[in-house]
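In practice, a research group might receive sequence data for several interacting partners and want a quick structural hypothesis before committing to experiments. The following worked case mirrors that situation: the sequences arrive first, and a predicted assembly follows.
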Amino acid sequence: MIHLQEVKKSYARGDQAVVACAVDRLDVEAGEQVALIGRSGTGKTTLLHILAGILRPDRGQVEVVGQRLDRMGEAARDRHRGRHIGMVYQTFNLLQPFTALENVLLGALFGRGAGNESRLRAEALLQKVGLGDRMHHRPAELSVGQVQRVAICRALVNDPELILMDEPLGNQDKATGGQVLDLLLQIADDGGKTVVMVTHDPESAERMQRTVDLASLRGEVVPAGGEAR
Amino acid sequence: MRLLSISLRNLRIRFVATVLTMMSIVVATALYASILTMAEQTEARYEGSIGGYQAILGPNGASELELVLNAIFNIGDSPGLIPLEVCQQMREQKRVGRIRRTRVRYAIPQARGDSVSRFNFPVVATLDEMFSKFEWHREPLKFQAGRPFHYSWEQLLELAEALARHENGVRAHEAEPPPRPQLQKEWRECVIGARVARSLSLGIGATITPVHGKRNEFGYHEHHEAACQVVGILAPTNSPIDSTIYLPLGVHLLIDGHEGGVFVDKLVPGKSKDMVKELPTSAGRIGLTAVILDPLDHLGPRILRSEFGTHPEAQVAWPQGVIPKFLQQIGNAADALAVIAWLVLLVAAVSITVAIYNTMNERRREIAIMRSLGARRLQILTIITGEAALLSLFGALFGIALCHLAQWGLQPLVEDLTGVYLDWAIFRPWELYLVAGVTAVGAFAGLAPAVKGSMTQVADNLAQNY
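A structural hypothesis for the assembly, expressed as tokens:
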């Protein structure tokens, strides 16, 4: 599902190049649920963006869902992300003027298309996460937990093979966060989806099948299935 | 959900800014559509209205355009009077001096100056030949109801003689001058144009009272003694005929207050106007405002113009020569106004660019979110350009609506001032092209902010936590 080799991404800061992310090798099998941990500034979010195709590495091979992202143009990576990858962010990233249903449909619009089938799927997902009666509410009219569930539905609406999450529970209390993570992992388990989650929270990381410390990816090979939950 | 529905939503959430930006598009479109409409309807109206008028005989001292505008389009005050004898010479094909006048099919005298109703529908006093001999686009005028009134050339001559006898008696200060002819009951009939009937809800048998001058003007008064019964309603011609009330010349000549004024006194060297008024007059000096001529030869109007070139009191105007020149001038003015309208549209387009461009900074995160969901740069470009296009489309549609509303509201005023009847209910194909053009201009104006939006850095802007 994910194969990274000799990947490096750096930014220019004045005359100096700052390495934002460096991974010698990372392999994630299809259906695996992996937690990415690491200190701040180790490049967890940058790695997530490389996996999503939002950023292109300076060098190295990036193969995600059977496609070499490092060889693809920007538009192709956008299309690949829309169709095969679902993303959930710490800040939810819902668009405020749109209702819960419309936010989920936005994911479909830029993915596999927002036709009638997608609408039915979006409604079914919202029903499944307990938001059947909140579909036409805007984010400002929903609680934090409800907003997070909408974001999860948006990530799942295209039935992606890979779900990438960037601190998805960071803005919630532990009880709510735990429920949301339970829900997400259950949906991922049911659909056989691969999940990569960036987190600072050891409890959340423990619930994943494998935890990968980003620092360990620099200069060493971490085999698949290295650390079971 | 479609990309354009996102554009629409973005316009809605910035409703006030959207409306304010749209206003300039509305004004520019309405202005341009109004200019085109006026130019088009003026041209159609003027070209279509001169179909029955080959030549107009009118007084010297006025321009040909003034004669034509007054005699055909009911615009402006009567530029003066010509004596009946000139009309008589034309009708009888008499030589005047050494010149043998060009032959005409008809020479129908007209006198005007009165009007009816708040619309100031002009009253034209004439003969029944207006409905038997006059040809509107080579056919007599058609009636949608009723019949013509009856008042012949012979009746006019007879009345003119009687009026002259009475007038001469008065001028000679006779103790008992010959009696002034009385207004015959059977003359008090009129024929009205289709628009007069429609606007005033008049039918056969209704009574019309001419008024002197125009409402709110000095000297305005009603001629109750000359109230006429409507005996005929003309079929629509889409010309000033529709707004005209025709009544017998005899009624006009015998209206109270017209007594001495119906004669045109010849100027005599060495005598003042007041002194001339004391001199004997004749039936041939009855004053007319115009005579409608139809020369037999197609070169006739131009020949007549040159024949009357040295006439001391009358001249001939050639509508087919005057009106195209007039329209050319209007066309030039319309072109100049159209340039102004396009400049307003250009300013409106710039305002769209600025308005959307200014929102780009606050929308970077929104765009980054859409990009993270898989939106391609081209789709972002489409959404933002779509906003500008939709804004312009709505502005253009409101502009067209405003143009029609203005035509409806200003219709009576424009017709009164220019003789052009604005048909506000007609939608023309070019209005669609205008809407499409304005939308395209708007979309183009949205390109700059759209390019800026599409260049938004996804990772940088997603990282910001607003």
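Before designing any experiment, note the following. Chain B has two domains: 3-44+326-463, 55-317. The interface with chain A takes residues 1-3, 6, 9-10, 12-13, 366, 369-379, 458-459, 462-463, 465-466 of chain B (CB under 8 Å).
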